[in-house]
TrEMBL record:
InterPro entries: CBM2/CBM3_carb-bd_dom_sf (IPR008965), Cohesin_dom (IPR002102). It comes from Oerskovia enterophila. Residues 234-249 have a biased composition (Low complexity). Keywords: Membrane, Transmembrane, Transmembrane helix. Residues 200-249 are annotated as: Disordered. This is Cohesin domain protein. Residues 212-223 have a biased composition (Gly residues). Residues 72-188 form the Cohesin domain.
Length: 293
C-alpha cells in the first residue's frame, strides 16, 4: 500500500502544477477581459479597476492634474504629410486608468490606425470613434500596479493630411480613474492648430512657335540660293552673268545638300569661261571709245 501511495504522489504533484497553471491562465484572461472593458466607457472602466484591484479601500484621493497641453509636431503641413499630436499632463497624482477622446476634422485629417500610444505602463488601446471624427484611447494599470504620477504623455496619435483646411485637433474630454476606482470627468483639455495646404503644382511653359530655318517648305527667311535668271549690270552698262540674285552672299552659293562634286567642278569651269568673255567684251569696248590697240 505504501508503494501505491508513493506512485500516486508524482501524479498528484503534476496535477497540482497543471491546476495552478490553469488558475494563473484564468486570472490573466480575466485581467485582459476586464482591461478591454475599458473601451465601453467610464462606468465599465471604474468597474474593471475595482475588479483588478480586488476591492481596494476608497480612502485614496481622486486623481488630480496640474495642467494639460496638446501639441502638434508641425503647425503647417501639406496634403499627404503625416503629423503627430501629443496630449500631455503635468503634476498628475493617483492616475490608475483613463479614457481620452480626441476630436479632429475627417475632411482634413485621417487617423493612422494603430498609431495611438502612451508612455504609461499597463494595457492601452486606441480606436476610431463611431462618429469617424474622434479617436478614443483607453489605458489602465493591471493588477496591483501603482497608480501613475508626475508629468505624463496621455496619448500620441498620428494623422495623415488628406485635404486642405483647418486641421485643428482637440482633446475634447477625459475620464480619470484613481486607484480606488473613483472617476473624475474633465473637458476641453486643449487644442493643437494645424493648417493643411494643397500640394503646389509647378506651372509648365506653353509650347512656342520656333522661327523657320529658311530651308525648303518652311516659313523662315530665304537662305539666298542663286536663281537661274539673276544678273548684275557691270560698270560698262552690260549685264554680268557672274552675279546671283536676291540676298545671297556669293556666286558659289548652293543648297549644300544635293550639289555633287561633278556639278561643282562644271560650275567653276563655266564661271571661268564667262569671265574670259566679259574681259574680251570690255577690251573691245575700250578700243571703240578711245582707239586703243
Amino acid at each position: 500500500m505504501d508503494r501505491a501511495v508513493g506512485s500516486r504522489a508524482p501524479q498528484r504533484g503534476a496535477a497540482g502544477r497543471l491546476a495552478a497553471r490553469r488558475v494563473v491562465a484564468r486570472r490573466l484572461v480575466a485581467q485582459r477581459v476586464a482591461a478591454r472593458r475599458v473601451v465601453a466607457g467610464a462606468a465599465t472602466l471604474t468597474l474593471a479597476g475595482a475588479t483588478l484591484l480586488g476591492g481596494a479601500g476608497a480612502a485614496s484621493a481622486a486623481t488630480t492634474v496640474g495642467s494639460y497641453t496638446v501639441t502638434a509636431s508641425a503647425p503647417a503641413v501639406e496634403v499627404g504629410d503625416t503629423v503627430s499630436v501629443t496630449v500631455a499632463a503635468t503634476g498628475v497624482s493617483d492616475l490608475f486608468a483613463y479614457e481620452l477622446t480626441v476630436g479632429f476634422d475627417p475632411e482634413v485629417l485621417e487617423y493612422v490606425d494603430g498609431s495611438g500610444t502612451t508612455d504609461i505602463s499597463g494595457f492601452h488601446e486606441a480606436a476610431l470613434g463611431p462618429d469617424g471624427s474622434s479617436v478614443v484611447l483607453m489605458q489602465t494599470k493591471l493588477g496591483t500596479s501603482p497608480a501613475a504620477e508626475g508629468d505624463l504623455t496621455l496619448a500620441t496619435l498620428d494623422f495623415v493630411a488628406v485635404g486642405a483646411g483647418d486641421g485643428a485637433v482637440t482633446a475634447e474630454r477625459a475620464t480619470l480613474v484613481d486607484a480606488a476606482t473613483q472617476a473624475t470627468e474633465v473637458t476641453d483639455l486643449g487644442t493643437a492648430p494645424i493648417t493643411v495646404t494643397a500640394v503646389a503644382v509647378e506651372p509648365t511653359d506653353p509650347p512656342t512657335d520656333e522661327p523657320g530655318t529658311g530651308g525648303p517648305g518652311t516659313d523662315g527667311p530665304g537662305t539666298g540660293e542663286p536663281t537661274d535668271d539673276a544678273t548684275l549690270v557691270d560698270s560698262d552698262g552690260g549685264s554680268d552673268p557672274w552675279s546671283t540674285g536676291g540676298t545671297g552672299s556669293g556666286s558659289l552659293a548652293s543648297t549644300g545638300a544635293t550639289v555633287g562634286l561633278a556639278a561643282g567642278a562644271a560650275f567653276l569651269a563655266l564661271l571661268v569661261g564667262v569671265g574670259l568673255v566679259v574681259a574680251a567684251r570690255r577690251h573691245r569696248a575700250r578700243q571703240a571709245e578711245g582707239g586703243v590697240e
